Amino acid sequence: MSVEGYYSLALYFIVMLAIGLFAYRRSTSDISGYILGGRQVSPQVTALSAGASDMSGWMLMGLPGAMFAAGFDAVYIGIGLTLGALANYLYVAPKLRLYTEKADDALTLPAFFANRFGHNALSIRIVSAAIIVLFFTLYTSSGLVAGGKLFESAFAIEYKLGIAITLGVVVAYTMLGGFLAVSLTDFVQGCIMFVALVLVPVVAFLEFDSFAQMNSAAFASIPDVNTSLQNLTVLGLISTLAWGLGYFGQPHIIVRFMAIRSVKDVSTARNIGISWMLVTLVGALATGFVGVAYANEFGLTVSDPETIFIVLSQLLFHPLIAGFLMAAILAAIMSTISSQLLVSASSLTEDVYQVVAKKSLSPERTVMIGRLGVFGVAVVAMLLALDQTSTVLSLVSNAWAGFGAAFGPLVLFCLYSKSLTHKAALTGMLSAVGTVLFWIYVPVLDNGQALSSVMYEIVPGFMVNTAVLWLMSKADKQTDESVLATFDDVHADTTQS
Q1: Among 35, 48, 25, which residue's Cα sits nearest to residue 331?
Q2: Are the C-beta atoms of 190 and 52 separated by less than 8 Å?
Q3: Does residue 137 lie in a domain region?
Q4: 482 within domain boundaries
Q5: Which residues cross the membrane (predicted)?
Q6: Count of domains in the chain?
Q7: Segment 255-271, tens digit of pLDDT
Q8: Distance, CA of 333 to CA of 343 (rounded, Å)
Q9: 392-416 helix and 93-102 helix, angle to the nearest 10 degrees
Q10: Are the C-beta atoms of residues 137 and 383 closer than 8 Å to each other?
Q11: Which terminus of the chain faces fewer neighbouring Cβ atoms within 10 Å, N or C?
Q12: What does pTM read for this prediction?
């Protein structure tokens, strides 16, 4: 890439660090400000922050790559995600915003689970925090893999150095500014992603004389819509649409609902967020489709399908614009990594360290421990990302399934089932994690493959958790009157609002 492209990237890095410094001065004096921005985040920032932290590098690399390699099967992932995100805004966001505040002002998802069942439910707090750190370390590594691939493909920078650059900038502004820095940078990054995913497929399409020419070139190597539908199996459709189930249990997304300014702002955030999501998903899929058409029509060799966005950006745009588009990929990557690092560090600080230590800490010391947690999780994720053979989409899918299966049914039952008990919640969560790990890693099929090759692991994990929660709650009724009273208050308040 030319000097102009590097200037664009340098400017992007400067803006991210400046936001970190701004947030450092505004909202890091206590742990509530560092973790949730004082619950004063606007609906606009909430919407784009949730979207940007959700989509990550797979939006500009994994999803276009899936369309480039496999065709229209990737569309069903987009449909499932859109439906899941909409349901999350409708059924989780309002109640969770109120409930986390009423449940002794819970600042993290594990704290909410514990407070939901009373102060003595510490086991579920520790276990859920451990699950967050485990899967977020894996999830964060997927973003670093995307960052390494970006620097290697676009800038001819060695893969490991690319990982280090990506991680260095993210860790700097996350450690400095906490949740406010993460949310504001996510807002800017969401805007950049939106522009990039409109610009690249449109400009690439203009290289063709007509839709017919583009379609003919694309379908030379990927199946058309009719063929894709004919080859689609019931299990395949369930697996792809089931990505939407994951939304109910993604801590880095639903923490945005906990931080939004008020319940009344949720509808505004929903309208902005879903509109942003529809445009960017269509843009990502279109990038993969136009990319495979361009490669076939003009003899372009693409060694890694997940780099098609990068390849088109470098071929079709002035170096200054290409640098901006590379910044869009970094924006997608960094927005998710920063959110995951902060949630992991929050759980380590609030749900593990303080619970195990059994002593209150000064606000300054608590924030310092949170910053150390960010750094620790980042280092472990970097070590995992050194395996260059890992694909972005596969790493994301495993972590997404783990969270969706472990926390998704539990969040819904916590918000809607008055009879849910602590024992049921803990057993269901552990059962889901065990099911997901078994589904991914145990080679039980005749060909030596795991069951995840037949059905996406979030489906059995979600079903097992739901069944355990329902059956055990029937056998073990909730009796804590204060817990029942808080549940009734939340439902009365959300009904009125």
Answers
A1: 48
A2: yes
A3: yes
A4: no
A5: 6-24, 74-92, 122-141, 161-184, 191-208, 228-248, 269-295, 307-333, 368-386, 398-417, 424-442, 454-472
A6: 1
A7: 889 889 888 999 999 99
A8: 16
A9: 70
A10: no
A11: C
A12: 0.84
* CA 18 vs CA 14, 23, 280, 335, 364: distances in Å: 6, 9, 26, 15, 22
Q: Which residue has the tokens 């619970």?
A: 355
What's the CATH code of the domain at 99? 1.20.1730.10
Which tokens belong to 179?
């949740």
337-347: average pLDDT: 80
Rg (CA), the chain: 22
C-beta of residue 359 within 8 angstroms of C-beta of residue 40: no
For the stretch 406-415, pLDDT in tens is 999 999 999 9
Tokens at 136, concatenated = 């977020």
* DSSP string over 2-58: -HHHHHHHHHHHHHHHHHHHHHHHHH-SSHHHHHHGGG-B-HHHHHHHHHHHHHHHI
- Which residue type is seen at 34? Y
Evaluate whether residue 234 is within a structural domain.
yes
Six token digits for residue 121: 């439910």
Structural domain of residue 163, as residue ranges? 3-393
Measure CA of the first residue to CA of the last residue in the chain; give whole Å.
53
Both tokens of 263, joined, read 């319940």
CA angle, 255 as apex, 194 and 423 as ends, to 5°?
Answer: 140
Residue 461 has pLDDT above 90, yes or no: yes
Of 196, 225, 209, give the one whose Cα is nearest residue 289. 225
Judge contact between 269 and 47, C-beta under 8 A: yes
User: Which pLDDT tens digit goes with each residue over 121-174?
Assistant: 678 888 998 888 888 887 788 778 878 877 887 777 888 888 888 888 888 887
SS3 letters across 258-312: HHECCHHHHHHHHHHHHHHHHHHHHHHHHHHHHHHHHHHHHCCCCCCHHHHHHHH
CA 26 to chain CA centroid, Å, is 26
Q: State the virtual CA torsion across 178, 181, 182, 185 in degrees, nearest 10.
A: -170
| Helical pair 109-116 and 392-416, crossing angle rounded to 10 deg | 30
| 51 inside domain | yes
Q: Tokens representing 439?
A: 């589904």
* C-beta of residue 174 within 8 angstroms of C-beta of residue 374: yes
